[in-house]
Design a protein that fits this description.
Signal peptide: 1-18
Domain Ig-like: 232-343
Structural class: mainly beta
Helix content: under 10%
Largest sheet: 8 strands, mixed
Protein name: Immunoglobulin superfamily containing leucine-rich repeat protein
Strand content: 25-35%
Strand order of the largest sheet: 1-2-3-5-7-9-10-11
InterPro entries: Cys-rich_flank_reg_C, Ig-like_dom, Ig-like_dom_sf, Ig-like_fold, Ig_I-set, Ig_sub2, Leu-rich_rpt, Leu-rich_rpt_typical-subtyp
Radius of gyration: 31 Å
Subcellular location: Secreted
Distance between the termini: 79 Å
């Protein structure tokens, strides 16, 4: 009913509105056509009849498409914009065109495109974006285009295509993606496999080729040799240590994220403390523990020190540093994450760990070292108590190098499931 009212409204307006002066408007083969091609236009002219279903603005000098550029023509089914000078397509420029079936944006200079506008174009069957300056495509760019039959992305500057990008295109029968400068790394291997197996017609496959790395330059994707690729894996380990021979209040808590994967994953720390969330792209310090020159606090010692080898050092660990520590590793093939909850407790007193489990603890001084007599009220098989020994000698340099002195049991650290409990002794 709403579409019928819209159609009636559009027809009535179409009867009273005139055509923009530079254009020719009329009916042909049952379609309401507005022809504005080859008019040397620098902007989309106003004043179109609302019942226009085909609009040609090809071969003009349009520099961009602003929001609401086609608000006057909501029933548009075909839009031709090839051979302009369009660099930017703003959000909201195309989204009102829910009836659009054919869109030609080829032979422009588009580098900035509002991909989210495509989510509203569920009727689209033809999309031509070839011969532009596109460098990337969001993974969900085509998620609503289940009616799309032909997609042309050739002659752009695409370096890769995310796996799953074409999965929503269940009606796709023709894809052109040749003559892009592809980086033939692990992230593109899926495209080779998909292209060889799909029923979609993909012409010029010899021109779907590698530009980098140099050893593979010019190699067609279909003949790409096997690459040593693996998704990330992470293993989080922890070692609280007392910095220096003389014991002082406040531990230096050292976490280490052992990362594996090919290509080498990027490491990121996510820390949730009582004061809020901290995000750290590793590394943020050099081997001396001082902030890198690129950070805001260059040459200082950050509260959380992330080293290039995967270690995270928290000097003078206290109540404010309690919380959940997660390391996240990401490469072209995916991501992996590992977390640990860290909480402080007073020795000799009962309490709860970070997961809400009750415990009882009692500190006992031994010969030259400290041990803890600890009792845990188990609530399940995961509540095993594991003693982790603390190193007396440790420094930022040691953490960065991955080394350390012989470990000795110091004030008690226990792992309950995935919760760490650190006991500070009154004698400190």
């Amino acid at each position: 009913m709403q579409e019928l009212r819209l159609l009636c409204w559009a027809v009535l307006l179409g009867l009273v509105q005139s055509c923009p002066e530079p254009c020719d408007c009329g009916e042909k083969y049952g379609f309401q056509i507005a022809d504005c091609a080859y008019r040397d236009l620098e902007a989309v002219p106003p004043g179109f009849p609302a019942n226009v279903t085909t609009l040609s603005l090809s071969a003009n000098r349009l520099p961009g498409l602003p929001e609401g550029a086609f608000r006057e023509v909501p029933l548009l089914q075909s839009l031709w914009l090839a051979h302009n000078e369009i660099r930017t397509v703003a959000a909201g420029a195309l989204s009102p065109l829910g009836h659009l079936k054919s869109l030609d944006l080829s032979h422009n200079l588009i580098s900035d495109f509002a991909w989210s506008d495509l989510h509203n174009l569920s009727a689209l069957q033809l999309l031509k974006m070839d011969s532009n300056e596109l460098t990337s495509i969001p993974r969900d760019a085509f998620r609503s285009l289940r009616a799309l039959r032909s997609l042309q992305l050739n002659h752009n500057r695409l370096h890769t295509v995310a796996e799953g990008t074409f999965a929503p295109l269940t009606a796709l029968s023709h894809l052109q993606i040749n003559d892009n400068p592809f980086d033939c790394t692990c992230g593109i291997v899926w495209l080779k496999t998909w292209a060889l197996a799909t029923a979609v017609s993909i012409p010029e496959q010899d021109n779907i080729a590698c530009t980098s790395p140099h050893v593979l330059k010019g190699t067609p994707l279909s003949r790409l040799p096997p690459l040593p690729c693996s998704a990330p894996s992470v293993q989080l380990s922890y070692q609280p240590s007392q910095d220096g021979a003389e014991l002082r209040p406040g531990f230096v808590l050292a976490l280490h994220c052992d990362v594996d994967g090919q290509p080498a994953p990027q490491l990121h720390w996510h820390i949730q403390t009582p004061g809020g969330t901290v995000e750290i792209a590793s590394p943020n310090v050099g081997t001396d523990g001082r902030a890198l020159p690129s950070t805001l606090a260059a040459n200082s010692r950050p509260r959380f020190q992330a080293f290039a080898n995967g270690s995270l050092l928290i000097p003078d660990f206290g109540k404010l540093e309690e919380g959940t520590y997660s390391c996240l590793a990401t490469n072209e093939l995916g991501s992996a994450e590992s977390s640990v909850n860290v909480a402080l407790a007073t020795p000799g007193e009962g309490g709860e760990d970070a997961l809400g489990r009750r415990f009882h603890g009692k500190a006992v001084e031994g010969k030259g070292c400290y041990t803890v007599d600890n009792e845990v009220q188990p609530s399940g098989p995961e509540d095993n108590v594991v003693i982790i020994y603390l190193s007396r000698a440790g420094s930022p340099e040691t953490a960065a190098a991955g080394g350390g002195a012989a470990r000795q049991p110091l004030p008690g650290l226990f792992l309950l499931g995935q919760s760490l409990l650190i006991f500070f002794l009154a004698s400190f």
